[in-house]
Design a protein that fits this description.
alpha/beta; 14 helices; 9 strands; about 35% helix
Length: about 325
């Protein structure tokens, strides 16, 4: 099935696992093309493709309520809820926002959620309203990319752990915010990863949650099986997904901080000062340490031969210790037609 033909989560319900994997490939190609064209959060969205496909495959939005934060990791959610065209048609790239937004989709984007770790607390409010109105549906808070350690996230976890009703928290654990995560909470997540979720020291269980650990959070079958176990449960539960930020795009996997956000890939700017770190400010904001300066100067993996052999480039090489060079980046990833 082509991504452009997805108009709602119902469209993926009949698909096989192989069909869903093919859809994931199309989504990753679209994310790379979209972010390389206008910029955007590339690593977070490459890393949660399987997780969000699984969410919409298993749960029944918009009846089931899904709240995402940090919501810049929502590209796949938007693609599956009627907005794929905005990631495929270059003329529409600037018409879609990076965060969940009720103005775009009041059915599927219940809240505008930025960087303030609100998903669990917002979902808790939905759960209280569901109880008062005596309704029955799943409530899912999808949280990750550094937002779990926010104070509002703790407030939500603390309150919702006492619910005697359905409440599902999906932790997208990619070990990162923009940079690596640090602190006692993330130490415990590491311990859970290292013990395959079996450590007796479990932050979530201590707050009253049932707990499922998924070691391969970028494996669709593993994700779907775990989410099916969590669906319709009548106790608060955490599904802890161990994911790879930048999954499927080798540079983003290797340089997770640098590919958190990508500027558009129109030029490559390299500061070749041997006494400092070199910074690629476009397209990736990547920081490359001084020991890599020689590779950058040679440009064997970045530049076409006609640029490397040009007199202009050779002059610039002589000024490498102090020069800032702006060069055209070849072979920008293009979404297959």
């Amino acid at each position: 099935m082509k991504l452009i033909d997805i108009h709602s989560p119902q469209d993926i319900k009949p698909l096989t696992i192989d069909d869903l994997k093919d859809l994931a490939k199309q989504m990753r190609a679209a994310i790379i093309n979209y972010t390389s064209t206008i910029g955007g959060h590339v690593g977070p969205n490459l890393g949660d493709v399987e997780a969000l496909i699984g969410v919409h495959y298993v749960f029944d939005a918009p009846k089931d309520k899904i709240v995402i934060d940090v919501s810049h990791q929502d590209f796949v959610h938007k693609m599956l809820t009627g907005r794929a065209q905005y990631y495929l048609d270059k003329s529409k790239f600037t018409e879609i926002g990076e965060f969940t937004d009720p103005n775009e989709s009041p059915e599927y984007d219940i809240f505008y959620a930025g960087h303030t770790s609100p998903s669990i607390s917002l979902a808790f409010g939905l759960a209280k309203a569901r109880s008062l109105k005596k309704e029955d549906f799943n409530i899912v808070a999808f949280i990750g990319d550094g937002s779990l350690s926010g104070g509002v996230a703790f407030e939500g976890l603390n309150n919702a752990g006492k619910l005697n009703d359905n409440f599902i928290v999906i932790v997208n654990d990619n070990q990162m915010a923009i940079a690596e995560n640090h602190g006692s909470l993330y130490d415990n997540l590491r311990e859970l990863r290292e013990t395959n979720g079996q450590s007796e020291h479990n932050y979530f269980k201590s707050l009253g949650y049932d707990y499922i650990y998924v070691a391969e959070g970028n494996d669709l079958e593993s994700v779907i099986n775990a989410l099916k176990k969590a669906k319709d449960t009548k106790n608060p539960i955490v599904v802890h997904l161990n994911t790879q930020k930048g999954e499927g795009y080798a540079p983003a996997e290797a340089h997770r901080e640098e590919f958190h956000f990508s500027h558009r890939m129109t030029s490559l700017t390299v500061n070749l000062c041997s006494s400092q770190m070199s910074r690629i400010t476009s397209p990736t904001r990547a920081i490359i340490y001084s020991e890599r300066l020689k590779k950058i100067r040679n440009c064997s993996s970045f530049l076409p031969q006609h640029l490397k052999s040009s007199a202009s480039w050779k002059r610039k090489e002589k000024l490498a210790a102090t020069s800032t060079l702006t060069l055209q980046l070849p072979n920008r990833p293009v979404f297959p037609q």
